[in-house]
Amino acid sequence: MAKKATRPATKKKPPKPGAIPEFHGTCGCGSVVFTVRGPLSNVTWCHCSKCQRFHGGPGPYASAARGALSFQRRDGLAWWDASPTTQRGFCRQCGSSLFFSDSNEATISLCPGALTSPTGLESQSHIFIGSKPDWYEVKDGLPQHLKS
Ligand SMILES: [Zn+2]
Ligand SMILES: [Zn+2]
After folding, report:
1. Residue 134 carries which DSSP code?
2. pLDDT digit string, tens, across residues 81-119
3. How far is the CA of 54 from the centre of ligand 1 (A)?
4. Alpha-carbon torsion 133, 136, 141, 142, what sign?
5. Which ligand is nearest to the CA of 100?
6. How many angstroms does the Cα of residue 122 sit away from the middle of ligand 2?
7. pTM for the full model?
8. What's the CATH class of domain 22-40+49-115?
């Protein structure tokens, strides 16, 4: 009887070192679905008054190269011109906060709550802490900056 070649059970391989990371995101209702193919920065929390209004609290952001972002669905995506150089992206159907874009920056920021976990991201710092409202404290030991 011929010996059959035994094949090892296929195992899920961890991503190769140097492989391009990929992140998947969506708004709450699925009218905006996107992929980031490339590295994302760790998360910076912005405590400025504009982020407070947009998010209902401090705004968490991770940034990526603009070219790394692609959309699989964007019919819900709307942009608010928050200033002459900045735009805030959200879903017009469900209201999810999704993006922050500054035309002076090579990167685009996204709200990491939209991403599918696990992301592997960590919080790294707090900015505009001088504008923080009085109803919460930041005591996580991460660096705090008065402005950006
Ligand atoms: Zn939505
Ligand atoms: Zn802000």
Report:
1. T
2. 999 999 999 999 999 999 999 999 999 999 999 999 999
3. 15
4. negative
5. 2
6. 18
7. 0.86
8. mainly beta
